[in-house]
Amino acid sequence: RWRSNSGNLILLNFVFAMMLQLGLFYVSSLINKNSDDYLLCTVIGVVLHYSIISEFCWMFVIAVLQFKRFVEVLGGPPKWILLKGCFCGWILPLIPVAAVFLWNPNNYVNGNVGLCYPSDLGLYLGVWLPVSIIVVINFVIFLFIVYSVVHRKTECGDVVNNEMMFQWRLAFLLFFMLGLTWAFGFLSELDYGEIFVYLFCATATLQGFVMFLFFIVFNLCVNKSEDLSFSGCSKGCWREEPECRFLQSENPPQCPESFIDSSQPNMCYKISNDKSKFPPKCPFEDVLPFNYYKDVIDNIGPVWMPVRRDLSNGLGFLQWIEASSLYKTEFKKKTPNGTYIWSHSKQEINYTYWSTDAVFDNGLLYGASTPNGWILTEEPASCCLFEKNVEKIEPELKLMFFYSTHNLNLIVTNPQGLKRVNSEFLMYCFTDADARNLLHRYPSLNQTLVADNTIIFTFELHKNGPGRYWCEAFKNFDLEVVRSNEILFRESAYFYYEFMTILQVSYSQTLVPFNPLSSDIINFLEEFFSEINSISYLKDNYFARFMKILDIDEMKNEVLINIHLTHVSKDTETNHDEEYQSVKMQIQKAIQDTVAMKIEMVNFLSSDYCMETIALQLTWPTTPLGFSVHSKEYCFKSDAARLTSLCAGDFINGAQWSVTDEECEIFNRSSVTQTL
């Protein structure tokens, strides 16, 4: 943090130039006395010449900074001060050095001071001239600064002594830092020069020592930017004393170097700027929840946000995936002010805190937060981390259904290997059997048994319809997700027929803020579900359930959704095909009666049977899911085998006939024998 300040970096460059000059003085004296190698002496002389001019150029840069600080107070520091300082301190000294070397390289060897150093005209024009110009300019700046500080209006009479002490300390420090002691060196060439020789030798050698006293021992008061802090005076009284952030803290740091002290007890964290594929390959074992590090985004830009869309079963909602109590809950937040527009359709949205730069695309899976709002990214951004030692134990989750109680039991083996927060396991169970949610997360699990290495939890089945059940937890060592086996519960004693319809819904007519990839779509379809319940047969015998989002067309404001209809009555007098046709007609009627929105039926399928259909002059009879069947016609392939078709699909997406490209020839029944 101290090195991030431009003024401190300039000070470091100045100290480095001063160290280089002192070291080369010593090396130059050794080479001149003990070697006849003129080439080596010339090289050392050139570098020594360069280091001296560089040191004075850095003194000039410091003088300009102090002038801006104490004289032109309102002007602020110059722009690109570090870049300009490096140009002045490291580039400009090359001009006099190159001029002396090109004029006469032997000038560095023929010196009469016992050093590899410029002599004669090279000494006067290459060293004395630029040094004297800088010393004169620095002296003028020094006078301006002292005058400005001394004549600063002070109304606080009881602290005049402190003000005078500050003035003397500042003048003393600047006298040495700006190289004004070299004025004694120039005056030594006049009469009574011996006095100035002693003064020059006594003061010029103290430059580094004085800087050590002021910047280390006296430890000036600096603010958060590592600049000198000052106290103001108003109406005869000093204002509140400024907070000092000393370079050497009175208390030892609680966190290792490069780590930041957290507001949480006994916790240090650091920000990693490395990006990786999901999940982030962080250098430590655990990751802070997003709520801990969301406030640092103003300083470091985009930050990985542990949310993503689950595309394993359609276009799922944006969900939290971090190891916290938010796991797999919907990610949504109303923006308190302002509105945004979609990047493509330019339609106004104000249901979340999306940035105006956000692009909504199927390839962008990961959420990130920026100072301008939320965005979607192809890869996760950086994350905040902390380290802790954890014993690695492999846990196991096993889900079982008990017919006696009609409950699901979750058996956890080696629970020590699961992550806990406030003594509670970060473990959740889910189902897609809920009638009003794409994914239902059980709020809590009932613990029924605790053994040495086993814990059993119990939770109830959903009565709204059939569905899948599973549980997930986080490992304590690396936060890897542990998933149980999956159970599909669909007992004929509870649920009989299962149909699904694909609907194309237009949401362009909605007057309220609407997000088709959130639970807003479920609320939007409430009228349609009400129309279904208004039909007495459907109300008495079926549950309508929103299962998945298949696709979304942002340009047309249309969304393709999957709706399931579950038969919950035990008594039925119709067969499957008759029930299929009856329910299909009644759903079409419900769509026609829904006037507040535009809905179109794209398909209507059974989850258990592929319905009888005619394709390419072939009639395929009603067939159970997962079975292959011959067409009613006798159609033979070139290998004399009858053509078959598979009833493919699954419970969620419905049963559909597989497409076959094989050719066959149809024979009349009269020309076909029953046996070969």
UniProtKB/TrEMBL annotation:
Subcellular location as annotated: Membrane
Keywords for this protein: Membrane, Transmembrane, Transmembrane helix
GO molecular function: G protein-coupled receptor activity
Transmembrane segments: 7-27, 47-68, 80-103, 123-150, 170-189, 195-222
GO cellular component, one term: membrane
Location (main, coarse): membrane
Biological process terms in GO annotation: cell surface receptor signaling pathway
One Pfam family hit: 7tm_2
Membrane topology qualifier: Multi-pass membrane protein
Record domain G-protein coupled receptors family 2 profile: where: 1-219
PANTHER family assigned to the protein according to its UniProt record, in alphabetical order: ADHESION G PROTEIN-COUPLED RECEPTOR G7 (PTHR47767)
Name the record gives this protein: 7tm 2 domain containing protein
